[in-house]
Amino acid sequence: MLYYNNKKYAWMMKRRALVACLLMMISMGALAHPHSFIDMNTTFVAKDQKLTGLKMVWVMDEITSADLLYDAENANSDSEVWKKLAAEVMANVLGQHYFTDIYRAGKPVKYLNLPTEYHLSRQGHKAVLEFVLPLAEPQPLVGKPFEISTYDPTYFVDMTYQDQQALHLPPEMAKQCKFSLMTPKPDSSLQAYALSLDKNDSPGEDMALGQQFAQRVTLTCQ
């Protein structure tokens, strides 16, 4: 019986180590080319004719989710286990500034260091992270377009909108705003380079590999 418990304990520790590695891999930027995949869904948030933030929903692939959700398998969705796990995942996202660049008229739009809300849940066998990225200062809707990109600089994680249906304008914005989604087409040599990278390889620091594969959302309001 003691032998069985020791084996069970060793297996539990191994799984915890895998979870820890998963939580760190995004923030550390130590690995490259897509080994993990996130489907994104974003809703623009506005108030009083100003853009105030982005409500994001990230659905992780099943392999990534398996280890991430292991400890929460039998826990209630409102339990401390889920809350702690959500906080750990969100902390890593914040460590990379939400993995998001927002520009207007060529200048970066700043946002707050903490989300106004966040939540981690399960969707079948997939982990789902939801949060609101708040702008530091609300931006008037009318004016120069907003340019928004969300990506992992190392390209270890592929972060993608499946199509324009994954982006949403609330009713108060739909009357005067429109958006477009541009998906880049890197040349064959860059694609081959990304695919050639092993899990333990890292792209050159000056390459901004993930940025070259990043989609760009353009929001324009009149």
Chain-wise SSE layout:
Layout: H1 2-28, E1 36-47, E2 50-60, H2 62-68, H3 80-95, E3 100-104, E4 107-108, E5 118-123, E6 126-140, E7 146-150, E8 157-160, E9 167-168, H4 171-174, E10 177-182, H5 188-196, H6 209-213, E11 216-221
Parallel strand pairs: 1-8, 1-9
Antiparallel strand pairs: 1-2, 2-6, 3-4, 3-7, 5-6, 7-11, 10-11
Helix pairs in contact: 1-3
Describe this structure as you would to a colleague.
The strands form 2 sheets. Strands 1, 2, 5, 6, 8 and 9 form a 6-stranded mixed beta sheet that branches. This protein has helices spanning 2-28, 62-68, 80-95, 171-174, 188-196, 209-213; strands spanning 36-47, 50-60, 100-104, 107-108, 118-123, 126-140, 146-150, 157-160, 167-168, 177-182, 216-221. With 222 residues, the chain is of the alpha+beta class. It is built from 6 helices and 11 strands. Helix 1 (2-28) packs parallel to helix 3 (80-95).
Q: How far apart are the termini? A: 71 Å
Biggest beta sheet attributes: 6 strands, mixed
Give the fraction of residues assigned to helices: 25-40%
Shape: globular
> What is the count of DSSP helices, taking H or I runs of 4+ residues?
6
Question: How many β-strand runs?
Answer: 11
Q: Low-confidence stretches at least 5 residues in length (pLDDT < 50)?
A: 7-11, 17-22, 24-32
Strand content: 25-35%
The H/E string reads: HEEHHEEEEEEEHEHHE
Write out key terms for the chains shown:
alpha+beta; five-stranded antiparallel β-sheet; six-stranded mixed β-sheet; 222 residues; single chain; 11 strands; 6 helices; UCP008159_ABC; 31% helix
